[in-house]
Amino acid sequence: MKPESTVGLVNRLVSNRESRDQVFAAIAERENFGYEFDKANASLELLIARLLNGKKLPFTVGNYHVSMRGSMETGDRTGHVCEASVKVHVGGAEYFEVSDGNGPISAFDGAIRMALGKSRLPSLTSVKLMNYSVGLVSGTTTGADAKTRVFITTSDGASSWTTSGVDENVVEASLLALIDSLEYAFTVRAKK
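Request: output the structure for the sequence above.
Response:
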């Protein structure tokens, strides 16, 4: 997906003036919190669909836990493991899965995909995370307590999209961006 300006995307997708005003108000609120939709058009498209069409998430993530074990001993930097557990709700069903990975995003991605794989939703095997970046939201607290903004770029082989998450906790911000990324994968397939 070629990035499009927030204003251009809203004007292209929302024809009704009242609806556009509602969308721009929601965008302003989220941008004040730290979102940048010019760089995360997929998250913006999902926001518009939720606001105007009452679009429901194909799945929701409930409780989650993430932990990491490792050693900083000289030469033993490969001995770490990150583990994530999630409760994923699809329709009226709940799926609890645990996965490990080389970091929290990899572990969350694995656990969510395992849960979705047990549901009736289409497979996401061709959907791959292509890029992940984290930065501090300017104008907020600095240092380890700063608000973070995460961007995730994902591809299904035919197209790619970028999503974003913002929170004071980098893991939460990452999980928000990951959920949008996987939700958008279902949206892309529905358009085909």
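The mean pLDDT is 90.
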